[in-house]
Write a structure and sequence with these properties.
This protein is of the alpha/beta class. Helices cover 35% and strands 19% of the residues.
């Protein structure tokens, strides 16, 4: 058991971790905040999966602002690293795990998600080994209480596609996914613009713009519990998600689809939440952000647009 405790996050914008000495095949990162009971359940789930393996390192990134040291919980997970941030960095804490990771394949697992079957790491690796064009592979999300995949968790704009079918896509769910180190080294960290919500859509655009492909792999299932611990009130979450969607569209969409997407998505979210979302507030958040980040707009190029169409996607969504 090798547990490394860090008192704070690394400095901003470091390069990907340098592999020195032992190099695991996989680095499995979990970020956690205000979900101790669910985290203990996840660790118990992973124990039998990891304890006999010698090709995995487990990284727990602790977003909790308390003084509790949770490193002792990792006993039985083999080689483990514990990083205590001392403040809630939201989903951006995945970057901390990526910076510490030494594996050839970086796997990310939300703290309220149980990945199955037990050989999920090998299934991710097999997908990468079979297709050198793949940069990222995501699991099929199913709700723990129903066994079904909700529309919002299906990584494609065509929600009529069979949920149990393997297919190339241009979206992914960040609750359970794997990425090649080579992809991460080229694409870089997830954007710091997104504290929570839809950050994977931005990253998916960046992955395909870099020339990599994305695979939906339903043979790996992410049992989503949607634990309420640490969540902000729903109106605040929906406002943040809507503002994030505006940001992502602004960064990556060509002008014509952008002009269509922003109003239509605002109406869609308004209807979905039965009017209980602050659209003007979200748009104001976006406008303030867009002014500060106006130089970053880089619409997807022709090869990326062709890839999205080949996957059956529509550019304006």
């Amino acid at each position: 058991m090798d547990i490394v405790v860090a008192d704070r996050a690394p400095e901003p914008e470091p390069q990907p971790a340098v592999m020195v000495g032992w190099t695991p095949r996989f680095s499995l990162t979990v970020i956690t905040f205000a979900r101790d009971a669910m985290l203990r359940r996840l660790i118990a789930h992973l124990g039998p999966v990891l304890k006999e393996r010698r090709d995995v390192e487990f990284i727990l990134v602790d977003n909790n602002p308390d003084a509790l040291d949770r490193s002792a919980w990792l006993v039985g997970l083999g080689t483990a690293r514990y990083v205590k941030l001392g403040a809630n960095h939201g989903v951006r804490a995945r970057n901390v795990g990526a910076r510490h990771a030494r594996g050839d394949i970086l796997v990310f697992n939300d703290d309220d998600v149980l990945i199955e079957p037990a050989d999920f790491l090998d299934r991710f690796a097999e997908a990468f080994d079979t297709d050198p064009r793949l940069g990222l592979v995501c699991a099929r999300t199913v709700m723990a209480d129903t066994g079904e995949t909700p529309r919002a968790y299906f990584p494609h704009t065509n929600k009529q596609l069979p949920h149990d079918r393997t297919f190339k896509t241009f979206r992914f769910q960040a609750n359970a996914f794997a990425i090649r180190r080579a992809t991460y080294a080229r694409v870089g960290l997830m954007a710091d613009d997104f504290f929570y919500g839809l950050e994977e859509i931005d990253y998916a655009y960046r992955v395909i713009k870099a020339g990599f492909e994305i695979l939906h792999l339903p043979a790996v299932r992410a049992l989503e519990f949607n634990d309420p611990g640490g969540r902000r009130p729903q109106p605040a979450v929906e406002r943040m998600r809507l503002a994030n969607k505006f940001k992502i569209s602004y960064l990556h969409m060509p002008l014509a689809p952008l002009l269509v997407n922003i109003p239509l998505f605002a109406v869609y979210v308004l209807m979905l939440n039965r009017g209980k979302v602050n659209v003007p507030g979200a748009f104001g958040d976006f406008v303030a952000w867009a002014w500060r980040n106006r130089a970053r707009r880089a619409p997807i190029d022709r090869p990326a647009r062709a890839y999205i169409r080949a996957c059956g996607g529509q550019l304006w969504k």
